[in-house]
């Protein structure tokens, strides 16, 4: 009488079923499920609060909102400035962060790589107000003559049309400060992702005659692409919601302009709320919360798109 050998899939199911009956596994499963539910409840609570508090601003008369032009006219310049500053930060920080991550993971000696890794992690722990003070005291003054040169020599480009700010407190300076703040986040995640590249892939590329750069180009970067996208989106989320650094650096005029070096700058939603919430009253409070709702929606959309990109990259891989 022959005995039938169970398939690997059946054995795996049996192991899972036996594990599911253990008390420790039940506790862990319940705790993980509860944590996920709590996150959803908190997110729903924040969304409900924002919507509830924003309703009076949405239904208010135009004359009661901002300068009497309505909620859309009030929020749009803030939303534009928020996105513009975050895009500047991401464009500047991502290539530099990827380069630093590759240097730490594949080029630097081990001791130097460890030291740089610790330094990057420490940069992420610096308070935003410190970055803001550095931006207004050091960076803005250093950028002022550069803005003057850009206005004189590249003024035909709308981004540098000028007149250049004499103080250097522009939307571009704010974007550079945000880039420095985003840099450690993207670098740390990119470094960890690149270090997870299978060693066999790297050795196979080198065995086929690839140089170190070609090995990184065809093995490491494709393997870590989804992780870099996730890191960039996390950095973008940090840049979208940053408050104090932008509030300290930016000279605000609440306009919509692509001129990056002028003293006339759009503000950001987070900075505008921080600067005006303490003195607001009545419907003005609801208007500020309505602008916060717009920022909440934009941040949620950014994370949703990032998840979609990562999932598609993983499916292609």
UniProtKB/TrEMBL annotation:
GO cellular component: plasma membrane
Membrane topology listed for this record: Multi-pass membrane protein
One Gene Ontology MF term: phosphate transmembrane transporter activity
Keyword Signal: no
Protein keywords: Cell membrane, Membrane, Phosphate transport, Transmembrane, Transmembrane helix, Transport
Protein origin, superkingdom: Bacteria
TM ranges: 27-51, 71-104, 116-140, 146-164, 171-190, 287-310
Compartments where found: Cell membrane
Pfam family name, one: BPD_transp_1
Annotated SUPFAM superfamilies: MetI-like
NCBIfam families referenced in this protein's UniProt entry, alphabetically: phosphate_pstC
Function statement: Part of the binding-protein-dependent transport system for phosphate; probably responsible for the translocation of the substrate across the membrane.
Similarity annotation: Belongs to the binding-protein-dependent transport system permease family. CysTW subfamily.
Protein name as catalogued: Phosphate transport system permease protein
